[in-house]
C-alpha cells in the first residue's frame, strides 16, 4: 500500500475553519430594483385583467385595488434602492478624519435608516491608547458619505480595575 492510498481523517468542507474567510461582500440595496420591476409588472397584469375581464364573474374590483397597491409598492422599491458606496474600512477612515484621533478598538455595523431605508454605517470607536481615553459613536451615510451624527466623549469606563490582578 502506498502513501497515496492511505486515507487520513479530515473535516468536511462546511466545517473547515478557513471556509468563508475570503472577502466579505456587504449587502446592497440595488437588489430592490429587481423586486421593483417584478412588482410593477405584477401590478400592471392585475389592472389589465380588471380592465379586460370586467364582466367576468371571476374578476372584481379587488384586482384593480391589488394591482394599484402592488404597483405603488414597486415604485417604493425603486425609491428605496439606494446603493451602498462605501464599505466598513472606508467608513472607518471617514470616522478617523472626523474624530481627529487614531481609532483603536472599534465596531462597524451596517443599518438602514428612515422611510427610504438609506444604508448607514454605525461606528463605535475608541482611541488607540492602551487604555482608551476617548470614545465616539458615529452614523455615516453609506451612499453620500455624510456624517449624520457624531458623539465624542472622554471614556468614562474604568479599565484600570480590570487590568489589576486580584490575589
Structure description:
With 167 residues, the protein is of the alpha+beta class. The chain has two domains: 51 residues; 76 residues, Nuclear Transport Factor 2, Chain: A. The protein has a four-stranded antiparallel β-sheet with strand order 1-2-3-4, covered by helices on one side. Strand 2 and strand 3 form a beta hairpin. Helix 1 packs antiparallel against helix 2.
Low-confidence stretches: none
Average pLDDT for all residues: 85
SSE series: HHHEEEEH
Shape: flat
Q: Which fold name corresponds to the CATH topology of the largest domain? A: Nuclear Transport Factor 2, Chain: A
CATH architecture of the largest domain: Roll
Total beta strands: 4
Question: What is the number of helices?
Answer: 4
At the first level of CATH, the class of the largest domain is: Alpha Beta
Distance between the termini: 59 Å
* Structural class label: alpha+beta
Amino acid at each position: 500500500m502506498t502513501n497515496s492510498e492511505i486515507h487520513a481523517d479530515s473535516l468536511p468542507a462546511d466545517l473547515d475553519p478557513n471556509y468563508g474567510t475570503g472577502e466579505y461582500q456587504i449587502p446592497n440595496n440595488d437588489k430592490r430594483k429587481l423586486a421593483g420591476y417584478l412588482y410593477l409588472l405584477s401590478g400592471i397584469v392585475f389592472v389589465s385583467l380588471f380592465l379586460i375581464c370586467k364582466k367576468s364573474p371571476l374578476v372584481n374590483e379587488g384586482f384593480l385595488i391589488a394591482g394599484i397597491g402592488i404597483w405603488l409598492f414597486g415604485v417604493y422599491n425603486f425609491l428605496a434602492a439606494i446603493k451602498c458606496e462605501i464599505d466598513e474600512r472606508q467608513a472607518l477612515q471617514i470616522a478617523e478624519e472626523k474624530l481627529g484621533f487614531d481609532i483603536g478598538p472599534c465596531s462597524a455595523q451596517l443599518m438602514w435608516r428612515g422611510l427610504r431605508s438609506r444604508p448607514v454605517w454605525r461606528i463605535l470607536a475608541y482611541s488607540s491608547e492602551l487604555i482608551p481615553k476617548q470614545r465616539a459613536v458615529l452614523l455615516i451615510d453609506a451612499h453620500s458619505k455624510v456624517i449624520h451624527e457624531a458623539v465624542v466623549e472622554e471614556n468614562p469606563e474604568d479599565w484600570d480595575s480590570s487590568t489589576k490582578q486580584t490575589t
